[in-house]
Amino acid sequence: MSGAAGSGAGSAGSVGSVVRRFLVEYGSGTPSRLKVLDAYLLYVLLTGALQFGYCLGVGTFPFNSFLSGFISAVGSFILGVCLRIQINPQNKGEFQGISPERAFADFLFANTILHLVVINFVG
Amino acid sequence: MAVPGPRLRVAAALSVLLLAGAQALAPSHRLTARDLARLRAALERPFADVQAAFYSIVGLGSLGVRVADEKAACNFIKSHVDSSSVDSLFYAAQSIQALSGCEVTISNETRELLLAAVSEDSSITQIFHAVGALSGFGLPLASQEALSALTARLSKEENVLATIQALETASYLSQQADLSGIVEEIEDLVARLDDLGGVYLQFEEGIETTALFVAAAYKLSDHVGTEPAMKEDQIIQLMNAIFSKKNFETLSEAFSVACAAGSLSRNRYHLPVIVVPDGPAAVSHHQPVLRLQVTNVMSQPLTQASVKLDYAKSASSKATVLQQTAFTLSGDVFELNFMNVKPASGYYDFSISVDGDKRFIANKVELKVKVSTEVGITNVDLSTVDKDQSIAPKTTRVAYPAKAKGLFTADSHQNFALSFQLIDVNSGAELIPHQTFVRLHNQKTGQEVVFVAEPDSKNVYKFELDTSERKTEFDSASGTYTLYLIIGDATLENPILWNVADVVITFPEEDAPSTVQSKDLFVPKPEIQHLFREPEKRPPTVVSNTFTALILSPLLLLLILWIKIGANISNFSFAPSTIVFHMGHAAMLGLMYVYWTQLNMFQTLKYLAILGGITFLAGNRMLAQKAVKRIAAEQSSRLAKYRTLR
Q1: Do B558 and A40 touch (CB under 8 A)?
Q2: Which residue of A has its CA nearest to B625?
Q3: What pLDDT, on a 0 to 100 scale, did the predictor assign at position B22?
Q4: How confident is the model over A54-70, as pLDDT tens digits?
Q5: CB-based contacts of B99: which residues, under 8 Å, 6+ apart?
Q6: What DSSP designation does B369 have?
Q7: Between chains, do A58 and B585 touch, taking CB under 8 Å as contact?
Q8: Is B468 on the interface with A (CB under 8 A)?
């Protein structure tokens, strides 16, 4: 991901300008495939955060359910990040033997195992 | 009966065993006169057959008792013997030998039958019965042949009963034959006995076998003239086991115990001695003589023995009060006047030895003897002591068993005090009995409070009642109390309960109690309600439903973002592998749902394996096709770039 790291000059405006610059670069420089994946990652993140917030607010009564849901979110996020790294064309040099199709197959397989365990634990 | 005697002795012997470890065991069981009567009754049943007749006649003979009607017994045997059976002939022969004046003639066929049975091919029981029958009828017998047949069979039949029968058989054979091989079997059998708690020794086959063994071993040893290879402790343990059986279910059991009793009281080597006190083992001024019954196992007095006291030590101070004194024989019991040495009251350990015959075993006995005395109370002073010490205490002397006249008071300014001395009436020495209690009994409410009077250094007993200290014991109930003095001890012949005086006890008013209720321990207690586990606190359903809806909102966001980014499925190729892959994947997700609701892990794994396999193969194919397409596209684009560069 091409991100220009601008040095903040100490005023709030520069933070805002860095963020804006980042968004622009992101929008233009990232292949749409990766953007799709990023949207998925955002979704998983929000789901996990909402679950955690609920648990903090209301109580951990069926603790196993909370754990399984939260870990499902965390695990999916991690697997998604792995997939993103592996299919990013800029990282092609580091993943010579792993084609994007192979990465996707690994992603599906790992998710299956993760969700098998999650469903076992959710109760 | 004198049952406490042996028990006391066993207890004393065992405790000495713990300390010394080398002291001999004391017999714990014997045949008392009552046991003997029971045994006789068991044996004196009317004869059912020749075997029963044998058990009765020979058993009673071992006890030294003759059969009631010998002639009838003789006729019974003669009419019931079966001349074709070796066993029947054996029983008949042995019974006839025990009866006096009973003759029977033996035909040649019977003799041939018996002689033929003495061979290596017959069992040991057959050989035993044949040899016994030949010997009982007085017929000649080839001892050497019998011995070799016996030895040959012994190597084949290893069980205990067979070996015992071999011992019996050998006792009928001539002494010229070399019976040492059979005699050695006694030692082997002793090794096979089971030791039960160090007190009993018996075969696992039972008491009957053990008793038969003892009888056979002594019979053979007497016949051969060698001492049986059994140690004194083993003999006593065997005795304990055999004579522990007091009820006999079968005639053969009674017979075996009778034979064992007979052999243990009349053999050439070992005579166990039983020493039992006649009555309780206690002496006092009224009963100064200690009487001992010294008998053999069948409770027959051994009047020829000389009984000696080795030493008598006080149990508490271990000082020897008497030693090396002989008991005198008076009728059937041995006596010793112990009070001649004027012993102080208490318990004494006696060590007694019985001599006079080299065969005596278990002849050193430990006995615990109690010396009792009478107590007298002297110098009984009742006084009321003023707490401020301003008035001199008023003391009244009382003499037992009179009661003090007048009332004594104990209240907030006065304490009540009692002092007395206890002496041994016969010797004048001071006594410290175990129980010296002062009991105060409220005449109105029935309450009683008991205190212990303690002796001071000069052995004067003192008791003081301070109302302020003792109000909890009394529940602050004021009133007239009767004062009793209770003196008791195991060595006192005259325990004392003496109403000494009446005491008026007054407690301060503010502590006046409500009516005293007797504490009833046996009313129903309050019921305990079981607290079931409280269910966990849950949020209201509204909240959780709201959250469920909320959690779906990121999904909505995802879809919107995807549409915005332009994700589409325009590249979807309807190849069969693609369809199979997507169906399989959907099925796997469906399986997850079904797993959540219904299945267990094993079933799920089974289905997952099938679906996963299909999905994997289809997916592999699909992704491979995509890869090929991608590589082709990349190559063509590279080619195009290359061309434009050129």
Answers
A1: yes
A2: A101
A3: 43
A4: 988 888 888 899 999 99
A5: B57, B67, B70, B73, B74
A6: E
A7: no
A8: no
SS3 A101: helix
Q: Which of B94, B114, B220 is nearest to B163 (CA)?
A: B220
Exposure string over B494-522, b if 16+ CB within 10 A, otherwise e:
eebebebbbbebebeeeeeeeeeeeeeee
Q: For residue B585, give the nearest of A74, A69, A107 by alpha carbon.
A: A107
Helix (H) or strand (E) holding B609: helix B601-645
What's the 3-state SS for B541-583? HHHHHHHHHHHCHHHHHHHHHHHHHCCCCCCCCCCHHHHHHHH
**Given this model, what pLDDT does residue A1 score?**
47
Contact A101 B623 (CB under 8 A): yes
The token pair at B215 is 């009888």
Residue among B561, B582, B593, B599 with most chain A CBs within 10 A, to mutate: B561
Is omega for the bond preceding B524 within 30 degrees of 0, making it cis?
no
% of chain A at pLDDT higher than 90: 47
Chain A contacts in chain B segment 626-645 (CB below 8 A): 626-627, 630
Cβ neighbourhood burial of B91 (10 Å; 0-12, 13-18, 19+): buried
pLDDT digits (tens, 9 = 90+) for B280-335: 888 988 888 999 999 888 888 888 888 999 999 998 888 898 889 999 998 889 99
Q: How far apart are CA B425 and CA B377, in angstroms?
A: 9
Q: What's B338's DSSP letter?
A: G
Minimum CA–CA partner of B601 in chain A:
A120
Helix (H, G, I), strand (E, B) or coil at B75: helix
Answer for the pair B100, B70: CB distance below 8 angstroms, yes or no: yes
Answer whether B547 sits within 8 Å of A102, measured CB to CB.
no
Which H/E stretch holds residue B192? none
* Residue corresponding to tokens 């004027």: B342
The residue count for chain A = 123
Strand partners, B373: B492
| CA nearest to A42 within chain B | B558
CB < 8 Å to A86, chain B: none
Residues 6+ apart with CB under 8 A from B442: B448, B477, B479, B480, B481
Question: B306-314 and B394-398: which strand pairing?
Answer: unpaired
What count of other Cβ atoms lies within 10 Å of the Cβ of residue B160? 18
Tokens 């470890």 correspond to B21
